[in-house]
Amino acid sequence: MQSGGQWSRGLRPRGPRTSTTTTIVVVTLCAFTLLLGYLNKARCAVAPFLENGRSTVFDAVKDSSVCYSDIQFLWLGRDIDNHVFPYLDGAITSNGVLTGGTVEYPVLSGVLMWIGAIPAHTDAEFLLYSALLLAPFGLLTAWMLGRLAGKAALLWSVGPPLVLYAFHNWELPVVATAVGAVFVMTSRMPLRAKAIVAAVLLAIGFCLKLYPGAFVLPLAAFVAYGGAAGRVAGTKLDIRGGLSVLGAATATVVAINAPFAILGYEGWRASFAFQTLRQADITTNSIWYWGLRQLYVTDATTPESYERGEAAFQDMVDIASPLLVFTAFAVALWIGARRAKAEHVYPWVAVSGSMLCGFLLLHKVHSPQYTLWLIPFFVLLRVPWALVVAYLVADLSMGIGVFKYFAALAQGSDAGTELFFVEVGVWGRALLLVVAFFVFARAGLRYDDPPRKSVSERRDARTSPASTAS
């Protein structure tokens, strides 16, 4: 049997070629933007504090001043303030309320939350220490994107999303794993070896926020098609190489989750059950709530009729949302296979970007900070800058408008203007995600690919004595 190294020996990507100066600028500006992001959230975290460590300012200004963060909010209600190690003694009630030390995120995010809380005694300190913990991941992402895509990485480093969302939730580590997988695939390691490392990174990402796990499928297809060197027509797919990617990712997820599942099964299971039971409500910012819900909740003349309509709507979303998400994944993978048939290389990064667009569009929850997941694909793929700018505008409309809207509702004032900006954000993002789904699927990479070899050159490289040695 020929070794996996045959697929990359002599046919390796050239790897990142960005100048050191450009990379330094990208990382330096990212550090400055991260500081602005922290200062923006810290406006909600000032003295005086209640006995439980909650800033008295938080509830008063978090929405009106657009300084809300899940980090500060979750200081209370998940035993984080009590420094309880997550999952081991937690559970979930029948109506979806988490108890004990369980948090609603996969285990590695829960551990990061616990670490950030160790030296903290107030929500302000928790925000600060969490920011210090998360910031290196943002800088690492900037460095990798800078090395891969040059000046285009400034979109990550100085874009509005990093100010709004860097410390809104625990997104920076998971973004770093997804970008890290792409970065590793530009290394000079043999194809199967670096693909396994990339699969492990994506699996770690899955244990942080789930979504990078979907990218393992196109990565496996990329390996099966022979990597960046491409597949010679008539040759067999490297099925064993593709399976090694899937196996590495699966083994990593099992290894990370097993201790929690064994030592605290109910608490571990509760984190997944919470997301399953979560409803598509006004806090989820999805097309489901702002679109199809109106078709179900039309008769509100009595509480009973309203509840029947709401229940029917939620039941529909619970079925339709995952079904359509997986359908979008299948379509993206199919488009990738069509490209691979013509180009002899499976476009795994492009397909991953399309899969993410499908998820963001069709999942029942579309939190504002998910934009950080998408930005690296705008950097890595050659897409029209008009699309990028339009998405950032729609995202700003949502990222600011939704909190202003909540503030207006809480104050009982007219919320018409704020509602307009929310709807622009919801439907603007939705339309642009549909466009991006297909643009991504057909896009090339901004970073250097290896020079394409002719069919005869690739056939000679694979049949030479050096490439067939076991």
TrEMBL record:
Keyword list, A-Z: Membrane, Transmembrane, Transmembrane helix
Keyword Transport part of the UniProt annotation: no
Ranges annotated as spanning the membrane: 20-39, 126-145, 165-184, 196-225, 245-265, 319-339, 345-363, 370-394, 426-445
Organism of this sequence: Rhodococcus sovatensis
Protein's recorded name: DUF2029 domain-containing protein
Keyword Hydrolase listed: no
